[in-house]
Design a protein that fits this description.
Arc Repressor Mutant, subunit A; Rna Polymerase Sigma Factor, Chain: A; about 180 residues; mainly alpha
Length: about 180
Amino acid sequence: MTDKEILDLYKSGRREAAFREIVESYSERLYWHVRRFLCSHEDTDDLLQEIFIKVWNALPGFRGESQLYTWIYRVATNESLNFLQKMKIRSALQFESISAKMEERIDEDVHLDGDKLQRDLMKAVQRLPAKQRTVFIMRWFDDMSYEDISEILGTSVGALKASYHFASEKIKAELEKNLK
């Protein structure tokens, strides 16, 4: 079902059916989008439920000024970044490095079935500054256009291209260092 059909279903008063379609259409894509930020299956499952609750509660206020797709991704991205911020604060209070903690999660993740290169890539992504990491995840893994990312993050396309370029260069250098 298309986003337009989902919104038409919602506007016609069949709100629960529309929400079921949103969950069905977006669950897997959002799972992987959030998972790339959190590096944990359990945290991703928990946060995904919170994201869908937030979408359900905010859907009556959706004005259609953006695409449903980019609006849902904005909610998911913001919730993921908020979760990471809370995690960073908790880690700081425990004198732990959030980056080291995320890398540890990648190594311990039984659900990540990739090879060493994939794990090294995920670790390199986690070492990026938050903005570069967000742009890299959305562009590289989610294959989003710069225009969609711009709509989701509220940042200019030019700034996103620069962030992606710097992120790519850092990841490339990190992976080359690991191959030696």
